[in-house]
Write a structure and sequence with these properties.
This protein is α/β, with parallel strands linked by helices and 384 residues long. Helix content is 45%, strand content 21%. It binds iron/sulfur cluster (SF4). The site of iron/sulfur cluster has 11 residues, from loops. GO terms for molecular function: 4 iron, 4 sulfur cluster binding; coproporphyrinogen oxidase activity; metal ion binding.
Length: 384
């Protein structure tokens, strides 16, 4: 099983962010840790000492917690679950928040073995436009400090398609992060989320996005460049040195069970899915009531099949057609005219028994996956 712990605090809200997070205070963090410990104990009693292959502190900004608080959470995970000695333990962090003396040494010595740094850009004007709490010098210092603290598995997040970003500036950012030699890179296209400050500025014309063709080149040429530097493009937004793929995310894409703790966290266990309330007070009430949830979605066989197709098509390995047949009892309709059309347009390919999105297909993955699901849904409707 995968364990996700959502840490819902940030020093301030970035202009583009729609993740669930609120203002940080020492008091709020103490209260939060207490609730997570209660929630973890509750699930530990219900689920038994389930083997954990990955523990992921995401946010928000988990690096705002004190090492002592992270230690308490790790200890509890080891008590209530069977935390594998080989488990991947990731901490998401903002560059500015890991530079406090001793922080990185402490969390590394506690067993956190993977650090995911929200670098986003190496250009200060773009970081300021995004409302990030750090600058590029801090991002570089954070990488060096992580290495000095003994982290050998570093992931850096970057964003392409930003207002004011040109193709050259994006490629310079990529060259800059490659020089920092992380093991993993996540490159996300900017997504304009409803209600964010950045979206309002774009809608008002105060900020202008790069045009579609430039955005496409950022993705395609950027991914090619990273591959040429030894980072395999193993998922739509993810690149890694061999063997350094995110095991936690690979678990999601493979459909493993995951337990999410904290406000707004989602869990899926044995075909049942639920979400914690986002508001802290409501979340605390739910934890106090125990593990029963009012709203649990029971995933139908159809939903599970759709998710398997959707999630595996995100990955470089693609959809295993033998596995598809074993799961659904039917051959994948790869000779269907719509699938043929995707193939002849160079958006998907058949390789070693897997249906894969090409890089061009990954660029428009939502539409391609929607088309494939449409074909499968019609096939399903014809057989019932
Ligand atoms: S640090 Fe991350 S989670 Fe927090 S506001 Fe910025 S983008 Fe959102």
């Amino acid at each position: 099983m995968l364990l996700y712990v959502h840490v819902p605090f940030c020093v301030r809200k970035c202009g583009y962010c729609a993740f669930h997070s609120g203002p940080f205070s020492q008091e709020a963090a103490k209260l939060y840790v207490r609730q997570i410990l209660l929630e973890m104990a509750g699930w530990g009693r219900v689920l038994g000492r389930v083997r954990l292959e990955s523990l992921y502190f995401g946010g928000g900004t988990p690096s705002l917690l004190e090492p002592g608080q992270i230690e308490a959470l790790l200890r509890a995970a080891d008590i209530w679950f069977d935390l594998s000695p080989r488990a991947e333990i990731t901490l998401e962090a903002n560059p500015d928040s890991v530079l406090l003396p001793g922080f990185l040494d402490s969390v590394r010595s506690l067993g956190v073995n993977r650090l995911s740094l929200g670098v986003q850009s190496l250009q200060d004007d773009l970081l300021a436009m995004l409302g990030r709490p750090h600058d590029s010098a801090q991002a570089r210092r954070a990488v060096h400090a992580a290495r000095a603290a003994g982290f050998t598995n570093l992931s850096l997040d970057l964003i392409w398609g930003l207002p004011g970003q040109t193709l050259d500036r994006w490629m310079n950012d990529l060259a800059g992060v490659v020089e920092l030699a992380p093991e993993h890179l996540s490159c996300y296209g900017l997504s304009l989320e409803e209600g964010t400050a950045l979206t309002r500025k774009v809608e008002a014309g105060a900020l202008v996005l790069p045009d579609e063709e430039i955005g496409a080149r950022m993705y395609l040429e950027g991914s090619e460049f990273l591959e040429s530097c030894g980072y395999a493009h193993y998922e739509i937004s993810s690149h890694a040195r061999p063997g350094r793929e995110s095991r936690h995310n690979q678990g999601y894409w493979a459909g493993l069970d995951y337990l999410g703790l904290g406000p707004a966290a989602v869990s899926t266990i044995e075909g049942r899915r639920w979400s914690n309330p986002s508001a802290f007070e409501e979340y605390a009430e739910v934890v106090a009531k125990g593990e029963a949830r009012d709203e649990v979605e029971v995933l139908s066989a159809l939903t599970r099949r759709q998710e398997m197709v959707m999630l595996t098509l995100r990955t470089g390995a693609g959809l295993d057609l033998e596995k598809f047949k074993a799961t659904t009892g039917t051959e994948f309709p790869w000779r269907h005219p719509a699938v043929e059309q995707l193939r002849s347009s160079g958006l998907v390919r058949l390789r070693a028994g897997h249906l894969q999105l090409t890089r061009k297909g990954m660029l428009v993955s939502n539409s391609v996956i929607e088309m494939v699901l449409g074909v499968l849904d019609r096939m399903h409707a014809d057989t019932v």
